[in-house]
């Protein structure tokens, strides 16, 4: 049975974060607010939990799940290396609406879908999300919706779509403007924007000092 916690009240936030952390550690799914839309999350290192996340969304491994982190330093343990351009972008835009694709560390035993040896990383600008991430570590997080339906802008919308597949719903109130994060791929010679969103291409080019391509 799933439980909704009103995180606008201090006691609700405290008990909700504790319940969410317990659920994540037990391989369960949680819904959490982020700075874009609500997300459905699981322990990034639990393949069964990530599979359950994809199943709850009605999605297959062909669309791999991004990973949210609670600090800049967490990235170093998840990727092969952090190139200078990535450092510059992290310092400029994290926490915030920028997702960075890098080659993952080969030693990691996770299964996020068909990632082709890469990982999509972001640090969200939302206090509830950051509190949970700092408690449980990196989480696989996707938008809290069934595949093909609009992303949830509230915990209520998320519950309407995902129901009892999720153990804990953290209600942080309505999300802000539903602008997706910009996704930039740094696995090649030059940055490539895979999805334009909260951060503009010109901003990326200014920070990196490099020409930024658009996918396709």
UniProtKB/TrEMBL annotation:
**Gene Ontology cellular-component terms listed:** cytoplasm
> What EC class does the entry list?
transferase
| Signal sequence, renumbered to the chain | none
Give GO terms: molecular function aspect only: ATP binding; double-stranded RNA binding; L-threonylcarbamoyladenylate synthase; tRNA binding
Ranges for the YrdC-like domain?
14-199
Recite the UniProt keywords alphabetically: ATP-binding, Cytoplasm, Nucleotide-binding, Nucleotidyltransferase, Transferase, tRNA processing
State the Gene Ontology BP annotations. Answer: regulation of translational fidelity; tRNA processing
Checking Gene3D superfamilies in the record gives:
DHBP synthase
- The primary location reported for this protein is cytoplasm
* Cross-referenced InterPro entries: DHBP_synth_RibB-like_a/b_dom, Sua5-like_dom, TC-AMP_synthase_SUA5
EC numbers, comma separated: 2.7.7.87
Where in or outside the cell it occurs: the entry states: Cytoplasm
Asked if the record carries the keyword ATP-binding, the reply is yes
Q: Does the keyword tRNA processing apply?
A: yes
The catalysed reaction is: L-threonine + hydrogencarbonate + ATP = L-threonylcarbamoyladenylate + diphosphate + H2O
Q: Which family does it belong to?
A: Belongs to the SUA5 family.
Against NCBIfam families, the record matches this protein to: L-threonylcarbamoyladenylate synthase (TIGR00057)
This protein is called L-threonylcarbamoyladenylate synthase
| Species in which this protein is naturally found | Saccharopolyspora montiporae
């Amino acid at each position: 049975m799933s439980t909704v916690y009103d995180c606008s009240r201090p006691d609700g936030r405290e008990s909700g974060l504790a319940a969410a952390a317990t659920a994540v550690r037990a391989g369960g799914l949680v819904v959490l607010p982020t700075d874009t839309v609500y997300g459905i999350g699981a322990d990034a290192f639990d393949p069964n939990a990530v599979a359950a996340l994809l199943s709850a969304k009605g999605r297959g491994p062909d669309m791999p799940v991004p990973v949210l982190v609670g600090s800049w330093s967490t990235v170093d343990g998840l990727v092969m290396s952090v190139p200078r351009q990535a450092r510059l972008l992290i310092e400029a835009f994290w926490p915030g609406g920028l997702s960075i694709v890098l080659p993952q560390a080969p030693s990691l035993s996770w299964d996020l879908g068909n990632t082709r040896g890469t990982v999509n990383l972001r640090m969200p600008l939302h206090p509830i999300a950051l509190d949970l991430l700092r408690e449980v570590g990196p989480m696989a997080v996707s938008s809290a919706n069934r595949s093909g339906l609009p992303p949830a802008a509230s915990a209520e919308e998320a519950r309407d779509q995902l129901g009892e597949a999720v153990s804990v719903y953290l209600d942080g109130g309505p999300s802000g403007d539903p602008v997706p994060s910009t996704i930039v791929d740094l696995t090649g010679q030059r940055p490539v924007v895979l999805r334009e969103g909260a951060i503009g291409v010109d901003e990326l080019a200014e920070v990196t000092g490099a020409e930024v391509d658009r996918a396709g």
